[in-house]
Amino acid sequence: SKIRMNKVVRKNLRVRLGDIISVHACGDVPYGKRVHVLPLDDTIEGITGNLFDTYLKPYFLEAYRPARQGDLFLVRGGFRPVEFKVVGVDPGEFVIVAPDTVIHCEGEPVKREDEERLDDVGYDDIGGCKKAMAQIREM
What we know:
Helices cover 19% and strands 24% of the residues. Strand 3 and strand 4 form a beta hairpin. It has a 4-stranded mixed beta sheet. Strands 2-5 form a two-stranded antiparallel sheet. It is globular. The longest helix is centred in the middle third of the chain and has 10 residues, at 51-60. It has one domain (7-138): Roll (Vcp-like ATPase, Chain A, domain 2), CATH 3.10.330. The protein is α+β, with helices and mostly antiparallel strands. The protein has helices spanning 7-13, 51-60, 130-138; strands at 34-39, 65-68, 72-77, 80-90, 94-97, 102-104. Residues 46-112 form the CDC48 domain.
């Protein structure tokens, strides 16, 4: 059978549209005690104000979102979207951000490495090009 996932999830899993993957249940994922997230530097240029109040608090509030160290996520708030990177979680590798989870966002913004922006339009966003894209990927 098939599943659908948004661009952010595909990016974190490092898969593309049409890739074949295996999905397995992840047993009891604990509620996080602490999660440390930092913005990507090129997405906060010119933004003033409190990133936590404008972006992170509304994003995580009562949402019970999963978090894994190294994940990127996009938050639409204020006047434009900001990308964040999960730089640490406690306990373990995977957590659910619950109402009692402490969200840290102190620190220098993360420099974008080789990752493309999550809000950029890519070939996967353009419909009707399956055969052409398959040929390009073979090259």
